[in-house]
User: Fold this.
Amino acid sequence: MKQGILAISYLLIVMFLFNSPHCWGFRNLKEGEPAPDFKLKDLDGKTYSLSKAKGKVTVILYWRPGQERSLNALKALKGIAEELSDQPLQVLAITKETDKLSEIKSLKKSLEIPCPILLDRDAEVYAKFGVFVFPATALIDKKGIYHFHHGGFRDNYYEEISGLVRILLGLITKEGLKAENGKNFSSLTEDQKRAINRIKLGKTLRKRGMNEKALQNLKEAVELDESNPEGHILLGLLLLDQQDTDQALQHLKKGIELDPRSIEAKIGLGRAYRMKGQTDKALGALQNGLSLCPDSAIIHLELGKIYESLGKTNEALKHYKASAECSIKTDKRNY
Assistant:
């Protein structure tokens, strides 16, 4: 009888852990402390270490081949890596199931996974990190400090991990993220919910080159919720692409007012001022952005264009060189 009660209790605990959205991913990691270093080889024999990733935000996925949750996490991280391909970000997918190499190689090819798949042959990382559930996701900042974890996989995995990564990259604040993704969605008004959906649709349409429809959805979004910074920023950038600099400035300024750390908005603001010939304001906006994201190739490129137009050749060359170096770093990222 006692054994039966214990078995049921154990089963309930396991069910809770695997279904809780806050399930532990790693038992041995503590937020705010350095993540344990490691050296592992990928499928091609190339060695990767966490210590060499300094200067990048690193996402570690400890996964299991053949597990649906793990495959969903891999696909989501592929999308995040592509979305933030111009940022100092790397994704490392680690597995200890080295007896399934042919399956893993086939999977990497069929899913077109760009990130390296590392082989934890002696389960070294598994033990160091204290993997608690598959898949397990850890986020590590540019200084090698562990910040967030995610155990398992949920429908909001992409949005949650993408948002946390952007925070660590300095692309958005926690407040800005909360406004963007409607973290407390149930507490939002119907107009705010509709605005979020319009923004998502606008982003998708813009990626597909359907700019007129994207513009229409983003305009409706800011009308529905003027307090959402992403709506203003995306609308401003789209208006900028259409050479409507006055309207673009209006929305970009509003976006920065609502989310002062938005790099995207500051780049857009700098471009808009440059297009209007207001070089001092353009330089100010871009330098502000550079102070938040010094490795931005785009900001350095925009600064180079401005200094070149002013005849300041040395300053222009300095930023063009920095832009190229940042681009090379990005191209060599280990995803």
Remarks:
- Residues 1-23, 331-335 have pLDDT under 50 and may be disordered.
